[in-house]
């Protein structure tokens, strides 16, 4: 097989079907960009879970003197020192508890000011005596929250027992929902790309039916006839995959590094190593998917 002939045939095919080739490149780029983005979102969710679930606590909030009207469990007033000592002693005896830390109202107020002073319009109206003292309980197994909740939610002096994992679950559910949406759009774009590839190959083969007929008469094999069409599709797919890689790199640079990192301080975002690790997979799919689609279409279309 002469490489010069194959390359010339590829150039002829691309020039004849320039508009459809451009449509293939764009659709492949969008579908693979969504595919790579969904992989990165899934890795981001896993990174966030590993980071936050390792730090998640169960918070046992104690009654203060302002809670009597708002919380029936605090009708008898603020938690006493004896109640605090009893709660701590019972927590330290439990086998599911790894660590117990007591947070005073002043410490809670300090943490509140650090996190929300610049963002909350009511921060200036909050005073230390309005903050709850609490026990921050680190569990050996974060799924054992019900053991703590059952034992302490009805205790005298306890306002409420809160599992921070439930708060984080809402965030992870949102990330997973966005991931599934991206996968759905990616699947739709992939179908569109495959249909465009098949139609482009068929139009190209039809426009060159005289040349392929002559090649068959002189004894050319089916693979020899098909290879220019397959390489046209592979070349267009590779260009689309390259564009998808550019979109992924640009998205991480502008969206994550130059915006989200500054806007959201509480999330540990994935780094460049995760992005670069996905690029070879995107390029491989962009090269192989159109080539296989073209091969499958040509087996029937060019069959004598």
Automatic annotation (TrEMBL):
Ordered alphabetically, the record's keywords are: Cell cycle, Cell division, Cell membrane, Membrane, Transmembrane, Transmembrane helix
In terms of one coarse class, where is the protein primarily found? membrane
Q: Which GO terms describe its cellular component?
A: plasma membrane
Taxonomically, which superkingdom? Answer: Bacteria
* Transmembrane segment boundaries: 21-41, 180-201, 222-255, 275-298
* Protein known as: Cell division protein FtsX
Q: How does it assemble?
A: Forms a membrane-associated complex with FtsE.
Tell me the organism's taxonomic lineage.
Bacteria, Bacillati, Actinomycetota, Actinomycetes, Kitasatosporales
Give compartment(s).
Cell membrane
Q: Nucleotide-binding: is it a keyword of this entry? A: no
Provide the FtsX extracellular domain boundaries.
Answer: 56-161
What Pfam families is this protein classified in?
FtsX (PF02687), FtsX_ECD (PF18075)
| GO BP of this protein | cell division
Q: What is the species listed in this Swiss-Prot or TrEMBL entry?
A: Streptomyces klenkii
Please describe what this protein does: Part of the ABC transporter FtsEX involved in cellular division.
Domain spans labelled ABC3 transporter permease C-terminal: 185-300
């Amino acid at each position: 097989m002469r490489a010069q002939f194959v390359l010339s045939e590829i150039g002829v095919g691309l020039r004849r079907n320039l508009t459809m080739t451009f449509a293939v490149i764009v659709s492949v780029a969008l579908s693979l960009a969504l595919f790579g983005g969904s992989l990165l979102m899934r890795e981001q969710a896993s990174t966030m879970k590993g980071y936050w679930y390792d730090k998640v606590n169960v918070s046992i909030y104690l009654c203060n003197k302002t809670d009597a009207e708002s919380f029936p469990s605090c009708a008898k007033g603020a938690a006493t020192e004896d109640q605090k000592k009893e709660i701590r002693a019972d927590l330290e005896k439990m086998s599911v508890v790894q660590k117990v830390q007591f947070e005073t109202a002043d410490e809670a107020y300090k943490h509140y000011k650090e996190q929300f002073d610049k963002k909350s319009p009511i921060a200036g109206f909050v005073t230390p005596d309005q903050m709850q003292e609490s026990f921050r309980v680190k569990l050996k197994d974060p799924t054992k929250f019900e053991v703590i909740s059952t034992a302490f939610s009805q205790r005298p002096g306890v306002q409420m027992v809160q599992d921070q994992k439930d708060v984080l679950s809402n965030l992870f559910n949102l990330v997973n929902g966005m991931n599934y949406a991206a996968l759905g759009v990616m699947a739709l774009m992939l179908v569109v790309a495959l249909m465009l590839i098949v139609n482009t190959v068929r139009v190209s083969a039809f426009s060159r039916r005289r040349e392929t007929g002559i090649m068959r008469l002189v004894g050319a094999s089916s693979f020899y006839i098909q290879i220019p069409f397959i390489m046209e599709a592979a070349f267009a797919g590779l260009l689309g995959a390259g564009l998808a890689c550019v979109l992924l790199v640009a998205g991480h640079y502008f969206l994550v590094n130059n915006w989200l990192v500054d806007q959201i301080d509480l999330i540990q975002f994935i780094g460049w190593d995760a992005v670069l690790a996905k690029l070879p997979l995107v390029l491989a799919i962009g090269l192989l998917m159109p080539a296989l689609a073209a091969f499958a279409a040509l087996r029937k279309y060019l069959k004598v």
